[in-house]
Write a structure and sequence with these properties.
Pfam family, one: PORR
Low-confidence stretches: 1-25
Distance between the termini: 75 Å
InterPro entries: PORR_domain, PORR_fam
Organism: Ilex paraguariensis
Strand content: 5-15%
Number of domains: 3
Largest sheet: 3 strands, antiparallel
Radius of gyration: 28 Å
Strand order of the largest sheet: 1-3-2
Order of helices and strands: HHHHEHHEEHHEHHHEEHHHEHHHEEEEH
Number of strands: 11
Protein name: PORR domain-containing protein
């Protein structure tokens, strides 16, 4: 894979010699974006089941969890469904039952969709997995609050990102009230300003993935190492000498935990840059797929003190992160979390995804079996027709004789 050189100001070496100048140059560093096909493929691998999940969500959010097919057809653009609903149903059997009903008492019957028994079984499995992993979900939510500037995060924003972290749909109305020792909900979500506050600080949660990794290495080897980022580009990639030197000096700066108070740090300082990278690393580590769309991260600029140009961090530190443009959406990906296009460490909440993919696979196998049966029946009919035509031809030949 070709990897062009980073673009960086020619006077970088001079700036690096001066702490003050070096600090001022951080935001001006320019790095050319490079495509990573394997990490793009990781996003592409999830495309089909995510499409199905959007359609399922649209139906389940309806009153009574049923919807006229023609209403769903009108929403295709909003849910980004590229094919007609009927085609989608044929390609993904087993998700919905199709039946006739009336929209109004005296209207003509029309086609409706409702969750199939198979889909409802999956929804029960989803509940079971969520309940089993409630301590993990509570820890994740505490961590998001503990990293924030005032230990407070917008409740509406949390609802918006629940899928990224594996939070259940009822996180604010069910899970949060169950844990008053950790959370306080202020205001009503969806009805103006509403916030989730951290009630108490749990020191066991205040360790980042990087700090936990350093502690684990000490337990295994007996050698205490300094918490540090993994910085590694894929095989075949390279960067210019000037950028390697800048990275070396930056990596030598002390690691700043995202759970430490950063109110005293200047927004333009290199220490704040180190802390910001740490926050992004931890957010991606807490996410289900170790990747989050950049626009979603941008919603939390106030809570986590991100600058307006925060997305440049992902290209400037391209040995830690990858900025994917797959699907026309910028997505920040944690490089160390992937081997080729596969996640290395699996979040327990990912079991929900695998159950859903299994549900889809059953439907696809069902469709394949039906198509195979149809082809076999057509083949038998053609063979029988050929035999009849042959017998008829022989009979006519005998009559002529």
């Amino acid at each position: 894979m070709l990897f062009k050189a980073y673009t960086i100001s020619s006077h970088l070496n001079a700036l690096r010699r001066s702490s003050l100048q070096f600090t001022a140059s951080i935001s001006s560093l320019k790095v050319v974006w490079r495509k990573d096909r394997l990490l793009d493929q990781a996003i592409e691998n999830d495309k089909q089941w995510r499409l199905c999940a959007r359609v399922v969500k649209e139906v389940l959010n309806e009153p009574g969890q049923v919807i006229p097919l023609r209403y769903l057809e009108k929403r295709r653009e909003r849910i980004r469904l590229p094919i007609k609903v009927k085609t989608f149903l044929v390609r993904n059997p087993g998700l919905f039952d199709v039946y006739l009903d009336r929209i109004k008492p005296k209207s003509e019957p029309v086609m409706f969709l409702r969750a199939s028994d198979r889909l409802r079984q999956f929804l029960e499995e989803e509940k079971r997995i969520t309940i089993e992993n409630e301590p993990l979900i509570v820890a994740k939510l505490c961590k998001l609050l503990m990293m924030s500037k005032d230990k407070v995060v917008s409740a509406d924003k949390l609802v918006h990102v629940k899928r990224e972290f594996g939070f259940p749909n009822d996180i604010l109305v069910n899970l949060v009230p169950k844990h008053p020792e950790y959370f306080r909900l202020v205001g009503s979500p969806g009805e103006g300003k509403s916030f989730l506050e951290l009630v108490s600080w749990n020191s066991s949660f205040a360790k980042s993935a990087i700090e936990q990794r350093a502690e684990e290495e000490f337990r295994l080897t007996g050698i205490r190492v300094r918490p540090s980022f993994n910085w590694k580009l894929p095989s075949g990639f390279f960067i210019r000498k000037e950028m390697r030197e800048w990275i070396r000096d930056w990596m030598e700066l002390p690691y700043i935990s995202p759970y430490n108070d950063a109110s005293h740090l200047d927004q333009a300082s290199r220490e704040m840059e180190k802390r910001t990278v740490g926050v992004f690393h931890e957010l991606l580590s807490l996410s289900l797929y170790k990747r989050i769309p950049v626009p979603i991260l941008g919603k939390f600029c106030d809570e986590y003190r991100f600058s307006n140009a925060f997305s440049s961090v992902f290209t400037r530190h391209s040995g830690i992160f990858y900025m994917s443009l797959k699907g026309g959406i910028k997505t920040a990906v944690l490089r160390e979390a992937y081997k080729n296009d596969e996640l290395i460490d699996q979040d327990p909440l990912l079991d929900i995804k695998y159950k859903f993919v299994e549900l889809l696979a059953k439907g696809h196998r069902q469709r394949t079996e039906q198509l195979t049966l149809q082809r076999e029946l057509i083949q038998k009919e053609m063979e029988m027709m050929a035999v009849r035509n042959s017998e008829l031809g022989c009979h006519e030949s005998n009559e002529e004789l």
